[in-house]
Amino acid sequence: xxxxxxxxxxxAACVALGFSYFxxxxxxxxxxxxxxxxxxxxxxxxxxxxxxxxxPKIKSVVIEREKPDLVLALxxxxxxxxxxxxxxxxxxASFFNKDEEINERFNVQNxxxxxxxxxxxSANFGAKQTDIFKVLDDIKSSFKKNQNATxxxxxxxxxxxxxxxxFNASKxxxxxxxxxxDTTKFPDLSIAKLNVNRYAFLxxxxxxxxxxxxxxxxxVASRFLISKGGNTVFSKELNFSAENRSVRLEANLxxxxxxxxxxxxxxxxxxxxxxxxxxxxxxxxxxIDERTSVLILSSIAHPDLGMLxxxxxxxxxxxxxxxxxxxxxxxxxxxQLVIFYQPNNNFNEWFEAVNAVNLNYVVITxxxxxxxxxxxxxxxxxxxxxxxxxxxxxxxxxxxxxxxxEDIGFADFPPLQATFGDLKINTDFDALLYQxxxxxxxxxxxxxxxxxxxxxxxxxxxxxxxRWRTKVFIDxxxxxxxxxxxxxxxxxxxxxxxxxxxxxxxxxxxxxxxIVKFNAQFFDENYQFDPNANLQIELENxxxxxxxxxxFLLRNNFYEVSFNTLQPGDYNFTVTEDDSxxxxxxxxxxxSFNVEEQFSSANFSKLNSLALKNDSxxxxxxxxxxxxxxxxxxxxxxxxxxxSTKSRPIIDWYVLLFVLIGLLAGEWFYRKYKGLI
Length: 677
Prior knowledge:
alpha/beta; 5-stranded mixed sheet; Immunoglobulin-like; Rossmann fold; 9-stranded mixed sheet; 14 helices
């Protein structure tokens, strides 16, 4: 307490005593105990009031013990159940959670994981994918400010993501793997990988690539076969040995029926083979009878051209042809969509030809675009340009509703480039993306759609879109999100179907370890997107006696619903809009595949590599006491004791207010009792 406050409190005591003495010993004529009691009560009241008015700050020393974190990363995937390690994992978790010495030294936290960290508080071993690298990286990010020990309790069998054996822990993090599951390598035949295109064309052959592995030392003969509906469509005799442990096969199968077609691949098991689940693999292809042909017309060579071709052809239903300005005799009837890349004067006759066959088109402009040529062929579009180049960033229009698309991170994309100038559009348009220049959103579109009568056209006012695709890959380690966006654009423009009020986007088949997702759009009577629609979906599978209902949730310019627990089989679905009673039905298939059941033992090698890379060692369930001793003696995990001084104003002590009220009440009641009031 400060010296000045002590002086003030002393003065307050003197004032209180003086005031009370004057009132009861000088001014008052009362005597005896009554005067003394009243004197004491009044002096205490005055002093308490003055004490509160002075409001001194009381300093106190607070000692805080900051314990390091002990993170138990618990494998919650189906492979743990497949290897019968559920009880082992729970017992290990219980050991560290209940140990008094461990809890005295650490803040123990349980984290359950599959493909990502789960929010649940207990294990159910239902996760269908394992991404150990991502889990370790998430822990690294979440606990980067504090010292922490991460105990990874897993079989080490990863099915997704980057290879975890090369993970680098932070300076605040130490990783201690505990291996659960039998590490013994049993003789095993397995289908390691199976590659097949999602689409095939009717009456054509499609390739299937199969990799088969063998772990063992003896010579083994087996037979691989592919069957459909109980009929074998491909077979091959195979031989394995200690020197010949892997075989690559390629089967060319005939597509004879439209729609999703399911096949079963199998390698006949050895006698007494421990794990026969990984000997089988079901797969499917969607057989179609037509392909969308897209033509790209350009006067220049540019990276955007190859990027567009790869992106569009990511969907095997589509084929892209690139032609240049010097080519003649183009048959536009062979195509469903034309992309004009940076038009110049040579494009005028091409625009006329496209208009003659009533094709939809895309126009992409840039730094080498001739805007006079564009205006001549598209009268409602013009731009007064200069030789100065300008960067244009993207800002999404959340109200765009012509077709479904996902925001793939447009706001973070690198800029597109075009010439500086005033863009004039003398027609109605719907912008997907607006221009953003130097951080300022402007009303001019960067990507827009124009619909005139029964024709649609799309305009992108900038080049170097290849940078967008690259950015998506950097962010997601896949081009899929960008390719899906381009695919939705192409699908909408190449379709000549009459616009429907209810549209559904879904996959005709998926695998049992995938999430089944449906996207939908609903339009009002004026074909404007309706954000207030009430959409629900009903799934039926008579064979499995399955009947599921769920409602769609609004996601910007579309509705979405997903299912992640569907059993293999064929499903029928009906989507209904409640208010209008508009319905749409379809069917899809869920193909049996459980990647978590492909393993016959724990992966000692990778868990040991992870430990060695991070200056640690692996442990087994019978070495928990050894790990406990290591954790307790490791100076890296010392408890940090912090001493701090805290000041608290006396007015925050509400008890003094009640004391004052009590003193005043006490004096009043005493006076009342003595008849002095």
